[in-house]
């Protein structure tokens, strides 16, 4: 559905995932579904991503807010793409259900003012060529 809505994986810039397990379950049940390579890799490949999938997983009843954190699919430090998809499903999850959701954006926040992570690292004296070392 995301690929149809965006016009294809190349159009997706930000992506993320979330799961909410109902009150009769445990967070581990939600985690077991979304934190596997069989789940994440399919989404990552479909949109041509290089970064890990940002995520949330919680336990809650029907109408619990679903919050999907998004980040740039190719650069986890690109702060303009730090977004959150936020919604609720009035009748889900039921006590014995798990809601699994994917989110995407076709751009970052317009007129973002969050700053540049790589400039911040440089200002702090870190090696910007290898930000993962920080």
The number of E-state strands comes to 5
What amount of the residues lies in strands? 25-35%
The span between the termini is: 37 Å
Largest sheet: 5 strands, mixed
Number of domains: 1
Number of helices: 4
CATH superfamily: BB2672
Mean pLDDT: 92
Question: What is the helix content?
Answer: 10-25%
The CATH architecture comes to 2-Layer Sandwich
Low-confidence stretches: none
Query: What is the overall silhouette?
Result: globular
Here the CATH topology equals 60s Ribosomal Protein L30, Chain: A
Give a quick set of tags describing it:
23% helix, alpha+beta, 60s Ribosomal Protein L30, Chain: A, globular, five-stranded mixed β-sheet, 5 strands, 4 helices, 134 residues
Short synopsis of the structure:
This protein is an alpha+beta fold and 134 residues long.
Structure commentary:
The chain is an alpha+beta fold and 134 residues long. The protein has a single domain, classed as 60s Ribosomal Protein L30, Chain: A (2-Layer Sandwich). 23% of the residues lie in helices and 25% in strands. It has four helices and five strands. It has helices spanning 2-6, 27-34, 37-47, 117-123, and strands at 14-21, 54-59, 66-72, 83-87, 98-105. Strands 1, 2, 3, 4 and 5 form a five-stranded mixed beta sheet that branches. It is globular. The mean pLDDT is 92.
């Amino acid at each position: 559905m995301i690929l149809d809505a965006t016009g294809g994986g190349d159009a997706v810039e930000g992506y993320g995932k979330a799961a909410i397990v109902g009150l009769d379950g445990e967070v581990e049940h939600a985690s077991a579904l979304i934190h596997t390579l069989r789940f994440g890799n399919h989404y990552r490949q479909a949109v041509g991503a290089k970064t890990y999938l940002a995520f949330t997983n919680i336990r809650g009843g029907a109408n619990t807010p679903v919050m999907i954190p998004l980040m740039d699919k190719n650069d986890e430090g690109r702060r303009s793409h730090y977004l959150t998809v936020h919604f609720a499903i009035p009748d889900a999850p039921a006590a014995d259900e798990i809601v699994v959701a994917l989110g995407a954006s076709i751009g970052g926040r317009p007129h973002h003012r969050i700053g540049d992570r790589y400039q911040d690292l440089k200002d702090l004296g870190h090696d910007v060529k290898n930000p993962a070392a920080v």
